[in-house]
Design brief:
The complex is a heterodimer of chains A (143) and B (141). Chain A has a domain at 1-62: Alpha-Beta Plaits (2-Layer Sandwich), CATH 3.30.70.60. Helices cover 46% and strands 33% of the residues of chain A. Chain A has helices at 18-34, 72-84, 97-121, 132-142, and strands at 4-12, 38-54, 57-69, 88-95. Chain A has a four-stranded antiparallel β-sheet. In chain A, β2 (38-54) and β3 (57-69) form a beta hairpin. Chain A is globular and about 60 Å long. Chain B has helices spanning 6-9, 18-48, 61-66, 79-82, 93-96, 109-112, 116-131. With 141 residues, chain B is mostly helical. The chains are: A alpha+beta (143), B mainly alpha (141). The interface between A and B is medium-sized, with 20 and 17 residues.
């Protein structure tokens, strides 16, 4: 299976002590390591206002991480752990690799088009005469 | 508008040649146009824009002369296309906020001018942000 990229966010109760959050993070790290995954990025956004009430809280401590894995079971395990840990009030995992792939494809496409565009503009003629020019240019540059 | 009453009054006041000549010139142009334009306005106005015809009814003389389009509106451009956005991140709430109403509704494309592709991505991003309490489903007040 290809390597997949996941966005994992979880929200702890605002009153959770820092140690508790660290504990959760380390357990997550452990299970990621067990399944041969990798934590690409870990960010603590700190206490933020929630857009709506979650478990009677209006604020929450956000932790965001990017996980890479080839096993889908890892996500199952991570979510199970988050579910059973008491301070966590909400979590969300999103698979992002396909979107990132799409993004890369699009930006590559755009770059290619951008590099082609100036050649087209110069002659102001139909696209047919344009291609030979770029071929000549590299040849001249090579010489 | 002052020209329109003048032409009917013009025949009796024939002796005043110079004045009627001017008023007729204007009157015919305005009258002819006035006859056609309201029809066009009434037929096309309600279809294109529900609430529009009332307000601009007096004003559209100018835009009508310019061309067929009655209510000139600046064409909205997709903001994401302008910025060449290939991926709308659900975590950047500041980016999503302008496309959400105060109460949390996603704004329609016709309001924001977003292209269909970006609107699709945007909707997805907003829904993800909602799920993790970054954006509201509906504000409870």
């Amino acid at each position: 299976m290809d390597e997949r990229v996941y966005d994992l966010i979880f929200i702890c109760r605002p009153a959770t002590p820092e140690d508790e959050v660290n504990k959760i993070v380390t357990t997550l790290e452990h299970s990621v390591a067990e399944h041969g995954g990798k934590i690409e990025k870990m960010e603590r956004w700190g206490t933020r206002r929630l857009a709506y009430r979650v478990a009677k809280h209006r604020e929450g401590f956000f932790v965001y991480m990017v996980v890479k894995s080839t096993q889908g079971d890892l996500i199952k395990e991570l979510e199970r752990r988050l579910k059973v840990s008491d301070p966590v009030i909400k979590y969300q995992t999103i698979r992002l690799d396909e979107e990132l792939k799409r993004q890369q494809k699009l930006s590559k496409h755009r770059e290619r088009r951008a590099s082609r565009r100036p050649r087209k503009q110069a002659p102001g003629a139909p696209p047919a005469p344009a291609p030979p020019q770029p071929q000549q240019v590299p040849a001249a540059a090579a010489e | 508008m002052s020209d329109q009453p003048v032409p009917p009054a013009a025949p009796p006041s024939a002796p005043e040649t110079p004045a009627p000549a001017r008023s007729e010139g204007h009157g015919h142009g305005g009258g002819g146009g006035g006859g056609r334009r309201p029809e066009g306005g009434h037929s096309s106005g309600p279809r294109r824009e529900g609430g529009g015809p009332g307000g601009p009814g007096g004003g559209p003389g100018g835009p009508r002369r310019g061309g067929k389009r009655q209510y000139f509106r600046k064409k909205k451009v997709c903001r994401f296309c302008v910025d060449h956005v290939d991926f709308i991140d659900y975590k950047k709430v500041d980016m999503l906020q302008p496309f959400v109403q105060e109460r949390g509704k996603i704004l329609p494309r016709r309001m924001t001018g977003t292209c269909s592709r970006h609107q699709r991505w945007l909707g997805e991003a907003i829904k993800r942000a909602r799920n993790i309490a970054l954006l509201p489903f509906a504000t409870e007040l």
